[in-house]
Amino acid sequence: MLVEVIGFGLAGACVALRLQERGVEVRVVDDGKPGSTVVAAGLVNPVAGRNFEPSRDVRAAWEDALAFYQDLDESLWHAMPIKRRWLGEKDRKKFEKKRGVVDWWIDEVDDEGVTWKRGGWLETRRFLEVARGRFVENGGAFSDESGEAGERIWCAGAAGLVREDFAELPHRCAKGEILTVRVPGWGEERILTGGGWLIPLGDDLYRVGATYDWDGLETGPSASGRERVEKILRGFTSLRFEVVDHVAGVRPIIHRSEPVTRFQEGKGWMLNGLGSKGVIFAPAVSRDLVEKVVSEAGQRG
Ligand SMILES: Cc1cc2nc3c(=O)[nH]c(=O)nc-3n(C[C@H](O)[C@H](O)[C@H](O)COP(=O)(O)OP(=O)(O)OC[C@H]3O[C@@H](n4cnc5c(N)ncnc54)[C@H](O)[C@@H]3O)c2cc1C
Hints:
Elements: E1 2-6, H1 10-21, E2 25-29, H2 36-39, E3 43-44, H3 58-72, E4 77-79, E5 82-85, H4 89-98, E6 106-109, E7 113-116, E8 120-122, H5 124-137, E9 141-143, E10 151-154, H6 157-163, E11 174-182, E12 191-193, E13 197-202, E14 205-209, H7 223-236, E15 242-251, E16 260-264, E17 268-272, H8 278-300
Parallel strand pairs: 1-2, 1-10, 2-9, 5-12, 10-17
Antiparallel strand pairs: 3-8, 4-8, 5-7, 6-7, 11-14, 11-15, 12-13, 13-14, 16-17
Helix pairs in contact: 1-5, 1-8, 3-8
The structure holds flavin-adenine dinucleotide.
Flavin-adenine dinucleotide binds at residues 6-7, 9-12, 29-31, 33, 35-37, 39-43, 155-160, 176, 178, 209-210, 249-252, 272, 274-279.
């Protein structure tokens, strides 16, 4: 069986490698445009959000993700504690009610906030390079054009959702802007969240984000976006900073950050909607999708 994968962002890379794990021949068609994966902060925050509500099946997905990325290259995943600051007394009370549900992720709780363990971030841009290398090493091929294939799996990200590649799939794609800043002498070594997020990169550099905008998706980095991210940064530190980079991208969102897989007659399969938790969920969801594709192709003979 030959499977064609369309798009080689986080979703396409995971699907292509999972297919190869199952011994399937794979061709990837990618248009070379930088997708969301190139811009993403790669944050691995299993209890993200204001409600201290872990996503469904997040623990199993986290375990799959760690094993998958480390097998590719141990240095891609930076394990780091996440300090989630309290956003007021109400927020803290909300946490106390949910404490039992999020217990597996708690390292410590103090007056400043809760520290999550098992957090970190993935170098998503370098992940794509490493995945590309592994895919080719395993005998995979890239092609500029779509061709004959037994099955086709669309992993086209926000571009595919906006284009409405698949029928009846309303999207909620959101533009996001991120700054890389230098804050001399700060020395913060934890990921900080609560009213935005901040990731220490080393050498006084930090990534900070992110904005959420549902209009003007393709408008790129903006002055208002920069202003809003600088405000997030000032919520974390009053130290002086210098902006060294500013990027924008579009998160592929269908329903919250819940990935969607589906089959459409005449079109093929798809994996999309990875949203803000793509790094955690892509390895598990792509494995499950590949099992389905391979087993249904087998049944059809
Ligand atoms: C500002 C920002 C911050 C983010 N932060 C995080 C984070 O901290 N943690 C996290 O987990 N996620 C984060 N995300 C989300 C994450 O980037 C996505 O979940 C994930 O990268 C989506 O991967 P994808 O493969 O579906 O899409 P993409 O990375 O967009 O890849 C799709 C690829 O398919 C190509 N393509 C589309 N159509 C075709 C076609 N017809 N033919 C050929 N090729 C095609 C596109 O050009 C693109 O290269 C963030 C996103 C943004 C924008």
